[in-house]
Specification:
Layout (H helix, E strand, L loop, with lengths): L16 E6 L3 E6 L8 E6 L11 H22 L3 E5 L9 E7 L20 H23 L1
Antiparallel strand pairs: 1-2, 2-3, 3-5, 4-5
Helix pairs in contact: 1-2
């Protein structure tokens, strides 16, 4: 990856995320700097492109299959109420998808995570979700290793 000043191009160690896996085409990160939303992942396309349509058709399919695989793992492992998918890229013009497990008890539900909090976070339920994440990470790693 290459893009001067692009935080997603410099995917080294970060307090903001943990790299779950890296393939030749994309990287999957678990976001760490959103503590109220521990099941927040990003699928980052490795080539520095800003828009989905910048990708060739085969790469668009590969990208969306990666997003769907992360979504499927979250749904199967956590049983959230909803999965939020977003490809904003307004602040970081590098193609990436947010894949976020949402629960009806989370602090912002049904608002987006960037919206207004609706209630206090349920720390016990957040702790349960956090405990399940290493197994989900391992499942994702095993999927792409196969």
């Amino acid at each position: 990856m290459s893009g001067a000043g692009c935080e997603l191009c410099a995917l080294g160690e970060s307090l903001a995320w943990r790299q779950v896996l890296a393939t030749p085409h994309f990287t999957v990160l678990r976001v760490l700097d959103a503590p109220a939303f521990p099941a927040f992942y990003r699928v980052v396309w490795r080539e520095h492109v800003a828009e989905f349509t910048d990708l060739a058709v085969a790469d668009r399919q590969r990208c969306m299959e990666a997003v769907a695989t992360v979504e499927s793992a979250l749904r199967g492992g956590l049983r959230p109420r909803k999965i939020n998918l977003a490809a904003l890229g307004n602040m970081v013009p590098h193609l990436h998808w947010h894949v976020i497990a949402r629960f009806d008890w989370d602090s912002h539900f049904p608002q987006p995570i960037w919206g207004t909090a609706q209630r206090l976070s349920d720390e016990a339920k957040l702790a349960e979700v956090r405990l399940a994440l290493p197994a989900l990470d391992a499942q994702l790693q095993a999927h792409w290793a196969a």
